[in-house]
Specification:
With 265 residues, this protein is an alpha+beta fold. Helices cover 28% and strands 32% of the residues.
Length: 265
Amino acid sequence: MTETPVTTTRRPPAPNPSERAKTIATRTGPATLMPTVEGPDRDSERVVPVLHHVHASGSVSILLPDDHPMLTATRQTQRGELAVVCELVDQAPVDLREPVRGLLWITGWLRPLNDVSARARAVSIAEHRPDERLLDVGHGVSVLRLTPASLVLADADGTHSLRPHMFSAASPDPFHDYEAGWLRHLESDHSDVVEQLAHHLPPDLRQGRLRPLGLDRYGLRLRVEATSGDHDVRLAFSRPVDGPPQLAAELRRLVGCPFLQRERS
């Protein structure tokens, strides 16, 4: 997919790669683990954890069944750890024909925690993200910690390599836990509003089906599903926003609400 800027002179402002990576990690999208050494059939080596949680530092907590082969493999190595890649998928919250918006790969060392550390880690996760699967820790499920060595983000804005300290210092977008519900609401209950945004598109994209794709403090992203393929467009806000009232005002501005124009006059 390609991101088509609204203007040809400069790209609209957007979160930087570290912020985008932090936002993806903060969401609870699908995750898989893979060994860093490629085998004859790497896809068959993909492991879907019982639960994963990315901490602010970039460390990842992984829950696996006690008898899982990957857990056994870590214990059989000389250092008691395994080099792996954790792939996080950023999926659009609306039903698009190409739902993946981005990928974040966290490469590092996977090591099982002892019983005391595992219980403490489960309690820490539950404070931020209550999940009944955490109750299985110590009862058939083990906790492993992935210590990051490097991170790679791939999305419509390109591919970016990040160091752990860059990720740790970044903050997720303020709308990261609001975006999914808001976009679904926009898609299901305000399709007329989405259609009115088409006048911001380049003429050659106005015949495609317009879908809400993403939201951040800098703007709204739209997906054009056309016969020629999918095209992503960013509509910039007049200024960065940090809450629903400012977001509503910016959306009215983008739509061209006459009441908003009168208020500004």
